[in-house]
Recover the amino acids of this structure.
């Protein structure tokens, strides 16, 4: 079995991005500032973090990663004008599996989405989208049974 | 009382709708049909998203459920279209209840994301099931027949669609102006306050989700019989997003926003499709690009949609004035005998991780008493309130009210015992009138549900609830502000409003969390007078307050807390002389 170089490149780039994000949010001051803003916007502003800047930075980072993934995937698939729409939505499924907080679990979730899609396109090609997006329902059920509902004071 | 301008505008609109098919070319009648069908879906979204604060991108899938149910049953099994409407609504109910059960508990991003997911799922299901005709769809649906009349043209269908739409709008508007409606309008501000007055917020969310889904399915059924053909494309996720656009463009917090949004979006799309290729000299879906830009601009500049802009053009009506008409008083629960043991807290404890906020606190309260709970900031007073009212679960210990255990119950169950509270940080619905805010407190004293409200069958009960709310507002001294928006009151008066709301729940025990904060001297005097009067009527009061003049002159007994523990207990004069209390407050007396 030969592995195309592009696939190795994709996997390598994903791992590199995960490590980079881990270091950024765990070690750097900017990363910690972003996390602080996510937890408590008012508190973060009081200690001098600009919430607007944090938002722009996060948006910028997320956009950058999306663009990189677009570049990586372009050589191995056919690109249509609306390819990004479904890819982006599937990314959500993966991210929700990681509860929108964990990179490794989100990556594992994305892997699961990919595997599921490949297998279902083999066995029941017409239903592959149905299967992938229905996957989210047991995940959500599990999330809603385990997550604690925290009431936020709106001050 | 409606201002005449609005009445004239409404009558004109109705007349225009009625004569439209006679004067407009067929093309525009078709367009109006589509506008009405979309309005019905976005009406559901006004209720769900605009008022209830729950975002759904997946409504198009419910439209599809309604459309496909009738398409399959009428073409393959020859079932009467009117019967398939009932079946379609039943199927939609089952699906919506299932999805609602799974996803409505989710907070933050999860809910909208999950609506996208099941929206896409259902769309691809429509397109891939053999029995639904795959991507080609199903054709040859029978025309509707109504009273011997065959509705087989756009013109004849027009009246059916518009009558159904206007009735739905009336129903939703009536619903919002009712007991359940007040609970729905409270959802956006979090569940804490609504639950404290007995509203089962999880159930209310499911109810509005279901109503929105049923409106969508109804629209789908009409759509299928108007076109007499269905295929999957109008039920995709982009259309689901478009429905949400319509609600937002129109002004998602008002029923009429649905029609305005659907109308604007449909017409604009039509015109842009006509004109853009001519201007650009090139064919293509340019209108979507223009839409995207317009939407961003709208969200930046006019978040409440375009309806408020129209309203500014119409001279403001006077709105309701004066108190609501007198109605039969609501029944009061029997008050306990003075001196009966009311509340007993035994070794209540609350830990937040390592922090012990309330540490083995015990005290009891007798009926007809005003008990003050005082202590420095962070002593655990508000936490104690939250334990008694079930907002937080106790870690250990026991709380009893008239011999029944309260710990372990949810706050919406505890209020049934006759325990009502106010909040340290006021929890009001700012864009609702003072009267409606207070009437929410009487939620448990009414019984009429969604259907009764939509059909205006609840008027007698509603009058009684509103009259009770007005009576309590009069009593606390806010009788001149009945129809003001609650958010426009100064903070001190908002706290007083919370007391009136609590009184509306017909309490035996009233829990007041810093009611005096933000009040001026005279207002505090009035507050003290009110509380004494309540005591004389047999209502007991548990009071957290920092104003020592107010507390010392008012309460019968005091419990002093520090670091979650009871420091002292006794009559005010004894507490004032207690050296431990002085030390806690003043840091030791030299």
């Amino acid at each position: 079995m030969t592995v195309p170089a592009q696939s190795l490149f994709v996997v390598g780039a994903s791992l590199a991005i995960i490590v980079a994000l881990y270091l950024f949010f765990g070690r750097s001051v900017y990363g910690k500032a972003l996390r602080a803003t996510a937890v408590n916007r008012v508190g973060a502003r009081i200690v001098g973090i600009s919430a607007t800047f944090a938002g722009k930075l996060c948006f910028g980072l997320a956009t950058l990663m999306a663009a990189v993934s677009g570049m990586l995937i372009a050589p191995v698939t056919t690109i249509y004008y609306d390819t990004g729409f479904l890819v982006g939505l599937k990314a959500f499924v993966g991210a929700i599996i990681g509860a929108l907080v964990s990179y490794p679990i989100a990556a594992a979730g994305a892997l699961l989405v990919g595997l599921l899609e490949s297998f279902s396109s083999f066995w029941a090609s017409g239903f592959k989208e149905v299967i992938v997006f229905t996957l989210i329902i047991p995940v959500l059920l599990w999330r809603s049974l385990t997550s604690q509902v925290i009431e936020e004071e709106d001050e | 009382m409606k201002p005449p301008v609005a009445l004239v505008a409404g009558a004109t609109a109705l007349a225009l709708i009625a004569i439209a098919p006679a004067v407009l070319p067929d093309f525009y009648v078709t367009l109006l049909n589509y506008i009405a069908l979309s309005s019905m879906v976005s009406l559901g979204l006004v209720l769900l998203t605009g008022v209830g604060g729950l975002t759904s991108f997946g409504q198009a899938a419910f439209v599809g459920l309604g459309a496909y149910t009738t398409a399959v049953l009428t073409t393959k099994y020859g079932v009467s279209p009117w019967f398939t409407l009932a079946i379609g609504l039943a199927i939609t109910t089952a699906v919506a209840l299932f999805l609602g059960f799974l996803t409505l508990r989710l907070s933050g991003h999860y809910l909208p994301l999950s609506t996208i997911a099941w929206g896409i799922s259902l769309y691809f299901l429509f397109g891939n099931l053999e029995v639904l005709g795959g991507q080609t769809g199903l054709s040859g649906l029978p025309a509707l027949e109504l009273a011997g009349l065959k509705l087989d043209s756009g013109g004849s269908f027009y009246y059916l669609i518009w009558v159904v739409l206007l009735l739905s709008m009336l129903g939703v508007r009536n619903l919002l102006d009712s007991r359940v409606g007040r609970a729905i309008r409270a959802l956006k501000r979090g569940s804490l306050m609504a639950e404290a007055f007995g509203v089962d917020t999880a159930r209310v969310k499911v109810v509005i989700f279901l109503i929105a889904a049923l409106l969508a399915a109804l629209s789908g059924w009409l759509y299928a019989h108007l076109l007499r053909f269905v295929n999957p494309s109008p039920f995709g996720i982009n259309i689901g997003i478009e429905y949400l656009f319509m609600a937002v463009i129109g002004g998602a917090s008002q029923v009429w926003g649905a029609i305005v949004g659907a109308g604007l979006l449909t017409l604009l799309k039509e015109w842009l499709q006509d004109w853009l290729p001519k201007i650009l000299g090139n064919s293509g879906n340019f209108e979507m690009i223009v839409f995207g830009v317009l939407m961003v601009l709208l969200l930046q500049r006019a978040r409440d949609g375009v309806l408020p802009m129209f309203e500014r053009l119409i001279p403001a009506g006077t709105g309701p004035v004066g108190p609501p008409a007198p109605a039969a008083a609501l029944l009061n629960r029997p008050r306990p005998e003075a001196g009966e043991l009311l509340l007993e807290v035994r070794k209540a404890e609350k830990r937040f991780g390592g922090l012990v906020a309330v540490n083995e606190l015990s005290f009891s309260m007798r009926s007809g008493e005003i008990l003050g709970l005082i202590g420095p900031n962070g002593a655990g007073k508000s936490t104690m309130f939250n334990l008694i009212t079930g907002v937080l679960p106790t870690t250990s210990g026991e709380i009893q009210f008239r011999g029944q255990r309260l710990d372990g119950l949810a706050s919406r169950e505890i209020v049934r015992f006759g325990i009502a509270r106010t909040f340290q940080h006021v929890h009001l619905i700012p864009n609702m009138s003072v009267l409606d805010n207070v009437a929410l407190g009487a939620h448990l004293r009414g019984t009429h549900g969604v259907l009764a409200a939509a059909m205006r069958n609840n008027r007698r009960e509603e009058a009684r609830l509103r009259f009770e709310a007005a009576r309590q507002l009069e009593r606390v001294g806010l009788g001149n502000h009945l129809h003001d928006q609650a958010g426009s009151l100064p903070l001190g008066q908002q706290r007083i409003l919370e007391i009136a709301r609590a009184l509306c729940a017909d309490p035996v025990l009233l829990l007041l969390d810093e009611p005096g904060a933000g009040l001026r001297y005279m207002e505090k005097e009035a507050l003290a007078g009110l509380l004494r009067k309540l005591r004389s009527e047999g209502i007991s009061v548990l009071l957290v307050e920092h104003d020592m003049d107010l507390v010392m002159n008012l309460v019968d007994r005091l419990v002093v807390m520090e670091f979650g523990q009871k420091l002292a207990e006794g009559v005010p004069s004894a507490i004032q002389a207690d050296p431990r209390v002085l030390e806690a407050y003043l840091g030791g007396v030299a």
